[in-house]
Amino acid sequence: MPSRFSAVPRPVYFYLAASFFMGLANTIFDVVFNFYLAERGIQEADAGVIYAIATGAMAVAVVPLLFLRRYASQRALLIGASVLYTVPFAGLPFVSSVASASVVLSLILSGMLGLLSVGNAIAGAQVPESARTRLFSAFFISYLGAGVIGSALVSVVSGWLDTSDLEKYRFFLLLSFLAACVMLVLRFPSGKAVPQAAAATGERAPEAPPETRNFVALFLAAGFLGASIALFFRFANVLFAQVYDISVSDISLILGTDKIVSIFGAIFAPVLVKRYSLRPSAVIFGVLAVVGLLVQSLTVPLVVFVVLYLLRLLFNYCLMPLLDTVAMSGFAPARQMVSIGLRQSSFYLGGAGAAALYGWLLDDGRWQAALWFSAGCALVGSLAMTFVRGSEPGRPADAAEGKAEDAAADGDGPTLKKEAAHA
Length: 423
Fold this sequence. Notes:
Elements: H1 2-6, H2 10-39, H3 44-60, H4 62-68, H5 74-86, H6 98-124, H7 132-160, H8 165-190, H9 211-244, H10 248-255, H11 258-276, H12 278-296, H13 302-329, H14 336-363, H15 367-385, H16 397-409, H17 416-420
């Protein structure tokens, strides 16, 4: 067991620990920020404007990142993004207008995009290609696990605080800032360069992948997958209320299980990839998501609808590690930070664009059409992922990936499963 842990480069552990505290900061913030805005007199419609501006800023933040990468090292960019993400958290307890909240939240989300792009590129370069799905699965497990803990922390501690609601929300926003500070400290050792693990395999250099086609396919895959899951990320409560007319407390109970189910999705992804390789796995998860959404559009009992909702979240977090993997495997190392940034930006742009359509459909009571559109996006996104081709010397990418997985499972190569059993 100690040898399994020692097989993982130390920066990867710091990367996963930093991801945990980033998830903790984001969750604490997410839980209370809307309530804080309401206490400061900012209405829901204005809050929607704040999130729209911040999401747009996050989507376009990839542009300066692509420019700066020519003049700064990846480590410098990682630390810069960490500071950009962390420092604005200190201002959250004091925002009192739409303008100030928009600026602070835009800075946080822009920093987060930089962290996801540069951090994933650095961590992914330190493990063999065959282990990257496990790496990104471990990232989602860390991030979502922190979300579960953060939600429970807010729920428990809020019952202990004997203060006004405004002061209570300020306390939690300050707590999210402290979690972000811990994340910032952990980013320093996570950005240390190590010899690439793939170099230890003795393989000759792979041929350059067809990157123009891969960029287009990755952009479409991330955009459509983001558009599909946006229905449940942003409108799950509206969907349940329209279809079944159940109480808010019952809806909250259902939605409270989503992060736990999502963690199982991240755990399951590398298991299927080991058996079927990456691209077939993407198709399997995509088709299952489509079938579930189409069944939900029928008149089904509430319990069936809830199960399919949870399965949709599970399939989404099965697909996300695969998407992060192809965002690296289809591109030369010099352009992997660009491809990862494109994946992040396209995912959020697709979600933002689809959210406007979902809102219009649900305002008209056309929840079935919203489910159909989400199903179509899931199908297109998962299929587009299969057109991102990797590069392996002398054999197809998928076959090489499958062989590498099998060798790693038998103890013949360095993998993340050997080291930490999915963290």
